# Entry
Amino acid sequence: MSAPTHQALSARAQRSDGAQARDRILYAALALFAAKGFAKTSTRQIATAAGANIAAISYYFGDKAGLYAATFTEPMGGNAGDLITLIEVAGLPIEQTLRIFMTAYVEPLKHGEIVRQCMRLHLREMIEPTTQWPTEFERDIKGPHEALVRALCRHLKLRQPDDDVHRLALAVSGLAMQLFVMQDVIDALAPSLLDTPQHIDTWSGRLVAYAVAMVGAETQRRTDARRAEPLAPSPAHAPSRSRKRAPSKRIALKPQPAR
# Structure
């Protein structure tokens, strides 16, 4: 195999420099958008924080809106569509479904400060919605929720979800979401719970067990409710309805005169 030429090495270095410049812009924008919001953050501020020129934003992301959209998906990695595909495999046991679901949700906590900024960004978008909110809702909230609801319906043998299935799905996903929303509280109460990747993996395993218990409790609740329902009488033992007979009309005969 021939040694790489100077031109090839130069092209690789340029690609590497370009990727680093793009990342600097992305993470500078994430920090500023999370702290100030979309409207109050200018491209000049982002470029200055990233040590880049404004033209680089257009080159790598198209415009400010494109950069804003990228801050929602790229820093933490993963893809909600991939998660949905994994948990919709036919015949997948509910415990395995919940393990995939929880692992995907908890894994980003290993990114440290970046995940805190992403959480602030999402919360700010909920409070001060932009045109990005409908996309985020459909892709990262509604999509995974509906996939989990379908998995629970398969486990509970339901054709259609009812309110309790939605309650259960929201409770299950809430187990993971509380770790993101309450990071500062957890750090104050018990900082060791999230301080290493191993401890985050422990959280993932525990949340799976808690979620399985919640599903088991809902399954039992439905079983008990069905048993408590009064049985409908079978047709053979159903009380017969007596038909009322119309009162018979007696015709009085007139006496015939004697002949």
In short: The chain is about 70% helix and 0% strand. Confidence is low (pLDDT under 50) at residues 8-13. The radius of gyration is 33 Å. The CA atoms of residues 194 and 237 lie 63 Å apart.
